[in-house]
Write a structure and sequence with these properties.
Structural class: alpha/beta
Shape: globular
Number of helices: 6
CATH superfamily: Flavodoxin domain
Number of domains: 1
Distance between the termini: 12 Å
Number of strands: 5
Strand order of the largest sheet: 2-1-3-4-5
CATH topology: Rossmann fold
Radius of gyration: 15 Å
Helix content: 25-40%
């Protein structure tokens, strides 16, 4: 579960944790990764990774994260909505997966997002994440979770928490 919110204990993190809890209950090995805790620099478009077998010239935390993504069967991407798009942290991570090349194929994805203005405000954000999944042959989005919330804790009592848990149980 890749959580891209810079806000600790925020709504998208709570929703993601519910997904993770459901998956754990079903017996899956789950790791919650907080992008805010990692040092990941933006892609510099040097294309070295395309020529040298997928090794990025930048020395940061992305190599370890990319290995985890490559080895995962199921990936949940989580983001709050910022101006109808994904968080900067998630965009940087997605761009840096270029080094993964064809090693990230055949994954199942769950997309988790939160926004203050309701589901309609989350659609373009979901499209951003779906665009990433479309670039990974054989991969597909298995579920989308929409959480309407703004201030920390607004997600409490939201039906999206139950949906996230059930998706986790069934992934």
């Amino acid at each position: 579960v890749i959580i891209s919110s810079p806000r600790k204990n925020g709504n998208s993190e709570m929703l993601s944790s519910q997904f993770a809890d459901g998956a754990r209950k079903a017996g899956h090995h789950v790791e919650e990764i907080f992008l805010r805790e990692l040092n990941i620099s933006p892609c510099i478009a040097c294309e070295a990774c395309l020529k040298n077998g997928g090794i990025c010239v930048q020395k940061d935390d992305m190599k370890e994260l990319l290995d985890k993504i490559i080895n995962a069967d199921v990936i949940a991407l989580s983001t709050p909505v910022y101006y109808y798009s994904i968080s900067a942290q998630l965009k940087i991570m997605i761009d840096r997966t270029l080094a993964g090349g064809g090693k990230m194929n055949n994954k199942e994805f769950y997309l988790i997002t939160t926004a203050a203005d309701g589901k309609h405000a989350m659609e373009t954000t979901m499209e951003d994440m779906q665009g990433f999944v479309k670039c990974l042959p054989g991969s597909e989005v298995k579920g989308k979770i929409y959480g309407s919330a703004f201030h920390i804790g607004d997600i409490k009592g939201n039906p999206a928490l139950d949906i996230a848990y059930k998706y986790g149980e069934n992934c």
